[in-house]
Amino acid sequence: MVAVDRDKESVLETCDLIRQAGGTAHPVVHRSRSDALCVLHTHTRAGCTVAAQEHGLLPLNQMSLAFYNRVGYHDYEGTALNKAEQRRLVANLDTHSALILRNHGLLTVGGSPAEAFFQMFYLNRAYQIQVDALAGNPPLITPPPDVCEHTATRWHAPPPRCLTRPRRCAFGRPVTRSLRRAPFRAGSQGPPGSMSSSRPRRSRAPGPAWWRP
Fold it and tell me: How far is CA 73 from CA 40, 58, 113, 194, 213, in A?
């Protein structure tokens, strides 16, 4: 792990080598957005795929509707950000919590790591669904604009207590913990003990012992 300040200077003796291109977008977002306490940037397969499509994110499912008219787009200008591009990136992000870096990847911001992860998880899931829906070039169904806007408005209502007070999340488990466990629930691969719980529960589905909630 490498810890740096807003000027990309190392603050811990963890690594002497800092990838300048990789650490350029984060500081400029932190400096320009007081609410951006956490900035995430990923190169997932689905995210990079949609970032290369001209139409960008389509309103195909409930998860993508959460970002309806609430996601920015930034054209690819190379691997490193100069001062001029930094200003353009910030302008394209605007007040959104998500930014599509064309031909590159995804970027999300949040008032906490949980909130930024929450945005990134569902943005990437929306992209996964879009890639699958477009496979084979079938005719697609999209909701009317007023329904899309209504869904996005409801999504961006005040965040649930899970994001601000994770110890008091509904159903007794933080949203970050639930999402972290989701990939292991979907398949049979995962480290032993990764699904362990402090409170034993009755098995509801077949599977390895470590998989059961």
Answer: 16, 13, 22, 36, 39
Q: Which two tokens stand for residue 24?
A: 């350029």
- Give the 3-state DSSP-derived string for the chain, with helices as H, strands as E and coil as C: CCCECCCCCECCCCCCCCCCCCCCHHHHHHHHCCCCCEEEEECCHHHHHHHCCCCCCCCCCHHHHCCCCCCEEECCCCCCCCHHHHHHHHHHHCCCCEEEECCCEEEEEECCHHHHHHHHHHHHHHHHHHHHHHCCCCCCCCCCHHHHHHHHHHHCCCCCHHHHCHHHCHHHCCHHHHHHHHHHHHCCCCCCCCCCCCCCCCCCCCCCCCCCC
pTM across the whole model: 0.69
Q: At what angle do helices 113-134 and 175-186 cross, to 10 degrees?
A: 30
Tell me the C-alpha distance between 23 and 142, whole Å. 37
Q: Give the tens place of pLDDT for each residue, 4-26.
A: 666 655 555 555 555 665 566 77
pLDDT digits (tens, 9 = 90+) for 119-148: 999 999 999 999 999 998 899 999 999 999
Taken in order of first residue, the domains within the chain and their CATH numbers are 25-158 (3.40.225.10), 160-213 (no CATH)
Residue 4 sits at φ, ψ, to 5 deg, of: -130, 160
- Calpha distance 56→190 (Å, rounded): 33
| The amino acid at 198 | S
